[in-house]
């Protein structure tokens, strides 16, 4: 199988490329710089440019590129960058796929559970409507940008990702140094829900979506979300360190501006109904086991 991947240098993209190649699949990585290897091709999502040859003849395209949501303060300019990087990249790929003579059978186009907004204690699945906020509107428009591929009959699936657990990046990777020093603690009152997934299950789910006839939005989260307080306690236990501190809401809002209420303080209790119904089997369904495997 030949798979074209964007965002291949990121946490999820690099792990996906390793997994595909380990099973003998051919991977072409789209990069924004000049190609430095035979398995690379250049694209410029900001300019709407990608060689049709990069997708022509591919069996699948996996689109994971986009500016990091929690990497910087949410200034007006950075929010524009987050939005533009996703919409322009998705539209560029979808239009190239539509123009190809030998179109891929599937476009796996990254998405996020930010679509649901703050769900409080309420559980939601893919049938739930759009929530409120910057991320909810972003996801709506991000998924819609893949329309050119859908219109020519390509199966388009949107894996709505939650919090991916990995040592090398994401929420866990950024907080591990503090927890190892005994400085970890809950965020706010700790009652907000975290919809997490291990990196291994994230990659397995992406490959499942490539191989199975499923389209539209699919929640890619473990079936047992936990509260921030429970997450904090479990991580502290896994590391053998105290985790009794707390960061008050006002401090998070002062430090992170608008991101606080759509990032660390948001409550999202999301269930992977469509994945489970399609027959996907999670390796890690409980947080303690996932943390043990990751750490």
List the helices and strands and how they pair.
Blueprint: E1 2-6, H1 11-22, E2 26-31, E3 40-44, E4 49-50, E5 60-63, H2 76-99, E6 106-109, E7 111-112, E8 123-124, H3 134-144, H4 147-151, E9 155-161, E10 163-165, H5 170-180, E11 185-187, E12 193-194, E13 196-198, H6 199-211, E14 216-220, E15 226-227, H7 228-239, E16 245-247, H8 249-256, E17 269-270, H9 273-278, H10 287-294
Parallel strand pairs: 1-2, 1-5, 2-3, 5-6, 6-9, 7-9, 8-17, 9-14, 10-13, 11-16
Antiparallel strand pairs: 3-4, 12-15
Helix pairs in contact: 1-6, 2-3, 7-10
What can you tell me about this protein's structure?
The structure is a single chain. With 295 residues, the chain is of the alpha/beta class. The protein has a single domain, classed as Rossmann fold (3-Layer(aba) Sandwich), CATH 3.40.50.720. It is built from 10 helices and 17 strands. Strands 1, 2, 3, 4, 5, 6, 7, 9 and 14 form a 9-stranded mixed β-sheet that branches. The protein has a two-stranded parallel ribbon with strand order 8-17. Helix 2 links the parallel strand 5 and strand 6. The protein is globular and about 60 Å long. The model has no long low-confidence stretch (mean pLDDT 95).
Task: Describe the structure concisely for a colleague.
By secondary structure, this protein is α/β, with parallel strands linked by helices. 37% of the residues lie in helices and 20% in strands. It has one domain (2-231, 241-294): Rossmann fold, CATH 3.40.50.
CATH architecture: 3-Layer(aba) Sandwich
CATH topology: Rossmann fold
What multimeric state do the chains show?
A: single chain
Low-confidence stretches: none
SSE arrangement, N to C: EHEEEEHEEEHHEEHEEEHEEHEHEHH
> Total strand count, please?
17
Report helical residue fraction: 25-40%
Task: Let me know the CATH homologous superfamily.
Answer: NAD(P)-binding Rossmann-like Domain
């Amino acid at each position: 199988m030949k798979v074209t991947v964007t965002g291949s240098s990121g946490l999820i993209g690099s792990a996906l490329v390793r997994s595909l190649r380990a099973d003998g699949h051919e991977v072409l990585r789209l990069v924004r710089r000049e190609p430095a290897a035979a398995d690379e091709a250049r694209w410029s999502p900001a300019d709407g440019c990608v060689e049709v040859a990069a997708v022509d003849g591919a069996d699948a395209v996996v689109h994971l590129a986009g500016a990091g949501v929690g990497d910087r303060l949410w200034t007006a300019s950075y929010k524009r960058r987050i939005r533009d990087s996703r919409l322009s990249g998705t539209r560029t790929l979808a239009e190239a796929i539509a123009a190809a003579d030998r179109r891929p059978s599937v476009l796996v186009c990254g998405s996020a559970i930010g679509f649901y907004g703050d769900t409080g204690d309420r559980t939601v699945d893919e049938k739930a409507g759009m929530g409120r906020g910057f991320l909810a509107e972003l996801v709506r428009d991000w998924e819609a940008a893949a329309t050119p591929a859908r219109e020519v009959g390509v199966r388009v699936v949107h894996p709505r990702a939650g919090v991916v657990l990995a040592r090398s990046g994401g929420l866990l990777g950024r907080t591990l140094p503090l927890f190892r020093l005994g400085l970890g603690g809950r965020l706010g009152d700790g009652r907000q829900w975290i919809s997490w997934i291990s990196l291994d299950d994230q990659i397995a789910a992406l490959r499942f979506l490539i191989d199975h006839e499923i389209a539209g939005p699919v929640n890619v989260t473990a079936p047992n979300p936990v509260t921030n307080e429970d997450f904090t306690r479990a991580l502290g236990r896994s590391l053998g360190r105290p985790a009794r501190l707390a960061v008050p809401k006002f401090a998070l809002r002062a430090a992170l501006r608008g991101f606080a209420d759509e990032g660390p303080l948001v409550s999202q209790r999301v269930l992977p109904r469509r994945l489970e119904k399609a027959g996907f089997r999670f390796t890690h369904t409980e947080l303690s086991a996932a943390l043990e495997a990751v750490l």
